[in-house]
Amino acid sequence: MTARRVSGCLLALVLGLWLWSPPACGLGAPAPFDLTQLMARLGTVKSGSARFTEQRYLHMLKAPLEDSGILVYEAPDKLQKQTLLPRPENMVIEGDVLTIDAEGKQQTLSLTDYPQLGAFIEGIRATLAGNRTALERIYDTQLHGSLDAWVLRLSPRDPAMQAIVSSISISGSGTRIGQVETVEHDGDRTVMTIAEGNP
Amino acid sequence: MTVKPRRAVIVWLLGILACCAVVVDTRFSADMAVFLPRSPSPTQQILIDQMQTGAASYLILIGLDGAPTETLAAVSKELGQRLRDDDADFVAVNNGSAGATPAGVERDLFWRYRYVLSPTVTPSRFTVAGLHAALETDVGLLGSDMGSLVKQGLPGDPTGEILTILGQFGGRKQPTSRAAVWFSPDGVRALLVAQTRQPGFDIGNEERVLGAIETRFAAVQRDVAGASGVRLRFSGPGVFAVHTKTEMKEDVSRLSLVATLLVAAILLSAYRSPRILVLAFLPVASGALAGVAAVSLGFGFVHGITLGFGVTLIGEAVDYAIYLFTQTAPGSSAETTLPRIWPMLRLGAAVSICGFSAMLFSSFTGFAQLGLFSITGLIIAIAVTRWVLPELLARNFATPPSSVLAPILLALVAGVRRLRPALAIVLLGAVALLGVHRGSFWEDDLASLSPIPTADQALDRTLRGDIDAPDIRYLVIAPGPDEQQALEKSEDIASILDGLESQGPLAGYDAPSRLLPSVKTQQARLSALPAPDVLRARLDQALQDTPFVPGLFDPFLAAVAAAKAQPPLDSAAFRGTSLALQLNSLLVERAGIWTALLSLRGVNDAAAIAARIAKAGPAGARFVDLKTESNRLLEVYRREAVMLAVIGGFVILALLAVSLRSIRRITLVVAPLAGAVLLTTAILTAGGHTLSIFNLVGLLLTVAVGSNYCIFFERQDWRDTNAARMVVSLVLANSCTIIGFGTLSFARLPVLHDIGMTVAIGTFLSLAFAAALTSRVSTAGAADRAPP
User: Fold this and answer.
1) ipTM, 2 dp
2) pLDDT per residue as tens digits for the range B647-656
3) Which residues contact A26 (CB under 8 A, 6 or more apart)?
């Protein structure tokens, strides 16, 4: 269990959190659809919460595992993933610090101690801030579809990051993210489906 | 007298040369351990070893404050990283950040030996049912956010032994964390804990390591924005040793200089002759040189504190020359003065030597050194005064009478006599004060003996509190004739404690057998593992109805087979890891006896644990409360100090009795001393203060030194024209003694400070009481008889 493995795991989780964002209200008239526009839209979201369901497809297992819970976002930098089933677990990112509560134990980690993870976060922050240049410094991006049904595929540019996560696919409609699929280097996949509406 | 004059000077010169030869080769030490007594019992020796060379002696606590949280966190991370890069000096540097998690070495060791280290390796765990339960747990873990953390190890360890092992060592409460590094609970200080490669008592190395931390800190301050105001402070046994050494050096050189200058100023103003000044210091210098040489020969090294104590010799031994010079009036010569004052000089020196010789028998090596140093110094000083000085003085040497000083002093002495009733009231007051003293007269805290400056002790308490590392207070110890038996006893005790833990008298414990199980236990655990084909069959059965893919756990089957073939884990496997330190502090070998120490955490009910260990523990196992034990230790030291003081007092009394042969005369010498000791004690304990062992030794020295004045006063023929000169010489001598010990009371080390203060007060009072009790001069007569 090297530091790299730890950051790989955290990375997947954190990405899931950051890429999900609650819906914004009062959308204006449709405009020509591109990455810049999508990011600007996502950046308007300030806070919210939603239910999620995760399917983990692991090479060790014949069948996927499922868990579910609630995601909470508070501007500027607090994100929370609260797993309720099959067993309670709570993960919070606030600023630079990541805290995991599970089975009565609490673990605190600093994102800056995991440079690759820090870079991913930097990319996500760039996305939320609508900074396309910063995002593309970290990922190769591919955007398909329309504003009503889009898929954003991110591939890390840094080989060290590729060794942890191969790709992330985010699909959504408008500012609502419907699904985040993270593919790890060993082929294991996690598909997070975010339910419409508040919990 | 029988010694031929010239020969005396030659012998003296040769002696000085010989002493110089010894001193040149002398090893000087600053190791404060010599001021902790040699311990009376093996248990207590272990405790003292723990204090001095236990695991804690490798730790340096570092606090950073004086800036906002973010800045401190940034400095902590950067400093931590740079110190970690310094492999030569540090085994580990922990500040709560992830970069500090134990290096692969420890985890690899745990992983490799997981089947002998884990207490959950039992036959039932490797049955079909046991394996199935473990696999169910694994599925749960994989489905959680921790899933990726356990994923890698799972195929080789489906029963999760590595998690059990890590849980045993990671169960301790972590310090408060802010911005992902350790902080004090109030957020004022960022905290780091560095573990050095060398023990802290290696002062030279520790000094270098502390210097390296400071250099790196200065570099970090330059590199991190806004960090210029950050303050670095550290603590720990090694830091104490370095600070104490520095303070000792400063104190000794500064105080020696001050005392020398002050005494020189007094002598110059009294004699107005640089030549006499040099001559007056001759006995002192010879005595100090001989003292250092004697200690060097007797102990193999000279402690810095012994040199510091040399300051007192300046005040004490210069007296002899003062008596000789001052009492040599014009028209007489030193050679005629000497026979007159020699009996008093000799008796005075003999009494002082008796007092100091009580210290020779102290179990504090440091005290014994002070004793030998002072005795040698005094003998040489008085011999030089007696046989060498007269040779070096001019034939017609005489000190000019002090026309200003003498009448004033005589008047004072006569005045003191009239103050008798007042002194009696003061003494009664002192008795009353001692009578109403609340609580114990004695300092109860072993820390009072500690040479560590109080500011350092306070900082250490603060940092320890911050890091949430409570002092180890409760231990269970078990001795055995060899390593294996000590480990087996540790396992027996651990199983008793495990039983208690669930009932609540304690929160947890560290045992050596957790890190290094006995060979018996290792074999038992290995025999709990089924043979390869049996295990494969059971695993296949257990895997039914689980989502795991076939063949996933082949590494597990291989690991169990490898574990059974592997030689047992031994202490050599820990070498070079941070675990070696922990093991060495929990399993101690001394003189062929191996002792397992189990340190307990969160003890709620010490009595229940003690009772359980006494009833069910293995042979020789003992529950130890370090606080009680250290109090008991202090009690032993104190009893010794009291005994030495009493014996010293009796020897002095016997000496006086033999010399004076008259109850009245003995009373006249002893009564002022008793009064001085009583009043000094009252002064020292006024306001609820307590006496340290060092104060007690100081009282003994008060008697040893103060008796000189009483003897001179008692012997003096007050009709003699020399009375005035005698009074002047005594006051001069007393001033020098007070200067010597008084300067010492400004030392920061408790041993020097306490002794210095006690003796300075005590000897002054001795002179005052002696004057009040024995002087016969009247003011009128004094003016007439005083030298013109």
Assistant:
1) 0.72
2) 888 888 898 8
3) none
